[in-house]
Amino acid sequence: QVQLVESGGGLVQPGGSLRLSCAASGFMFSFYAMSWYRQAPGKERELVARITSAGGSTNYADSVKGGFTISRDNAKNTVYLQMNSLKLDDAAVYYCTADRSWPAAMYWGPGTQVTVSS
Questions:
Q1: Which residues is 48 bridged to in the sheet?
Q2: Is residue 21 packed enough to be buried (19+ CB in 10 Å), middle (13-18) or exposed (0-12)?
Q3: What HEC string does 28-87 produce?
Q4: pLDDT tens digits, residue range 66-107?
Q5: Which residues pair with residue 71 across a beta bridge?
Q6: Cis, peptide link before residue 103, omega less than 30° from 0
């Protein structure tokens, strides 16, 4: 029943932009913080960006500050990741997550591939 479905991944050149979307269903979206993680081949999974349940606070990995923006639309049960000035090191599988503190719960999407290549 719980589903997180990422979309918007694909191939982009260095310096280009891409917007990822994550459509959520099967749970109370507005009660959950939403995050984007990524994992590149040979690297550890990394928290890229996070946004609180009401959208009032965000945080980012140092590696993407200034280039990436996370946002959410609670009316549409959707979270976004706007990626600008993409670099080769940004290539990875990007995962959408939803989590809450009480009771503790966390859900993961299946991921979407972002390829950055010249």
A1: none
A2: middle
A3: CHHHCEEEEEEECCCCCCEEEEEECCCCCCEEECHHHCCCEEEEEECCCCEEEEEECCCC
A4: 999 999 999 999 999 999 999 999 999 999 999 999 999 999
A5: 80
A6: yes
Residues 6+ apart with CB under 8 A from 52: 33, 58
Quick: pLDDT tens for 31-71.
999 999 999 999 999 999 999 999 999 999 999 999 999 99
Cα–chain center distance at 72: 10
Give me 111's structure tokens.
Answer: 């991921």
Q: How far apart are CA 97 and CA 110, in angstroms?
A: 10
**6: amino acid identity, one letter:** E
Question: Taking a C-beta distance cutoff of 8 angstroms, is the pair 23, 94 a contact?
Answer: no
